[in-house]
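ok so i was messing around last nite and threw this chain in just to see what happens. nothing serious, just curious
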Amino acid sequence: MKTDNQNSRLFAVQILEKVEKNQSFSNLLLNETVKEQNLSPENIGLLTELVYGVIQNKLKLDYQLEPFIKKQKKIDSWVRQLLRISLYQMTMLDKVPTHAVVDEAVKIAKLRGHRGVSGFVNGVLRKIDRDGVRSAADIKDPVEKMSVQYSYPLWIIELLVDEVGKEETEKIIKSLSTRSKLSLRVNTSLKSMEAVIAQLEDEGFGVSKSLVSKYGLICENGLPVKSDLFKDGIITIQDESSMLVAEAMQIKPSDVILDACAAPGGKTTHMASYLDKDQWGEVVALDLHENKLDKVLENAERLRVDDLIEVRAMDARKSADSFPDQTFDKILVDAPCSGLGLMRRKPDIRYQKSLKDIYSLQKVQLDILNSVAPLLKEEGRMIYSTCTITKKENDEVVRSFLEENKNFIVEPVQLTNDKLKLSDEGYLHLYPHLHGTDGFFIASLRKTSDNK
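result:
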């Protein structure tokens, strides 16, 4: 009979196998496992800690493991995951005694493998306990040291060092290694911020006002999706950084807006909240996948803006085939990107992307901008945003677009928060260490004429 603790460790091994083999997202696998298995809250916590802890520290754990396993010719994936979660508990979790970690690991090894495997696992872990592990501080090369110490692939470190320097790079990746926080967007046209805070506190949630967005709250504990505030569309879950997009659009109630890459709809519904149906305001939301647009509509209905949103399953790069030139007052291109700004809440991303992906995404991003540009009215505004921190997907894409579209100019991103500093070009770069948000980028582009 397996104990709950043993189950948690066994499930962690299985989840980590799938993440590494299939590039599955750990948060989705965790949710599935929790729904399917009858684990206590304590062991759900242990499972979550093990999965995220190993992913966030994988390169460091492998560096520490390597001297103890280098003589072994072949190690099955599940055995490597078991060693990782065991080492993580031994070196980074104070609450679990080492002897208990080793005992549980050996039991799992016996359950999944043969006697030789359990003996190997037992020997490796007991030698680690006896000899200790090597430190990343011993690595001479500072870039390689950062890669191992914070468990980020070398290409990410090298790219960031090239773009922002070593000191800023270390601040960014150190911040991305901390736990994410939950932020809520409040529809203040339905209820005041103060009233929402009071109600959430009455329901047992600790909340504070966002220092980034005037519409944002930080929830310190729990997930208020069962609150009447959530059910009634007064609050929704959205990162503070992405709340700035609708503000940067400078929306008028009568605007007709194109959201070129809309799913899952957080920014779509936020923009719609500025519009007035009686003044013919509307957001036309595009996405490649019909099922993702269903989610947009579901959110829109809960947030009471479904009558202001029209959805169309369409590749934004072909939008000119469906809309006449100069159809829209405003356009949002929240482009497909590497998502490297989300690595705090989705740590798997760092191992699933490559520099080659960045260059491929550059082309997609530029193609979308070029495709929707003719659809914007003269003097209209187009916002380009991403949830990544690489200048290759941000500044360089905007620069290429402007070179090909002389009838567009950069204007400073318009925000009410004067503590958010713009770059010399007028762009907003939100780096995770500056305000504790996701990494994010916003550029504002104005169309001066209809001729390139």
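not much to say yet. The chain is about 50% helix and 15% strand.
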